[in-house]
Amino acid sequence: MLDGTENIELVQEEKKEYTTLNLGPTHPATHGIFQNVLKMDGEKIIEAEPTIGYIHRAFEKLAERRPYAQITTITDRLNYCSSPINNMGWHMTVEKLIGAKLPKRVEYMRVVVMELSRIADHIICNSVVGVDTGAMTGFLYVFQWREFIYEIFEEMCGARLTTNIGRIGGFEKNWNEKVWIKLDRFMKEFPAILKEFEKLLVRNRIFMDRTIGVGPIKGDRALEYGFTGPNLRAAGIDYDVRVMNPYSSYEDFDFIIPVGQNGDTYDRFMVREQEMWESYSIITQAMKKIDRKENLFHGDVPEFYLPPKEDVYNHMEALIYHFKIVMGETDIPVGEVYHAVEGGNGELGFYLVSDGGRTPYRLHFRRPCFIYYQAYPEMIKNGMLSDAILTMSSMNVIAGELDA
Amino acid sequence: MITTEENIKTLHDTVLAKLKENFGDAIISSAIDYDFPVFVVRRENVFAVLKFLKEEAELNFHFLTTMCALHYPENPGKEFGMMYQLHNMPKNFRIRLKIFIPGNDLEIPTVTSLWATANWMERQEYDFFGVIFTGHPNLKRILNMDDITFFPLRKEFPLEDQTRDDKNDSMFGR
Question: What was the ipTM of the complex prediction?
Answer without folding.
Answer: 0.91
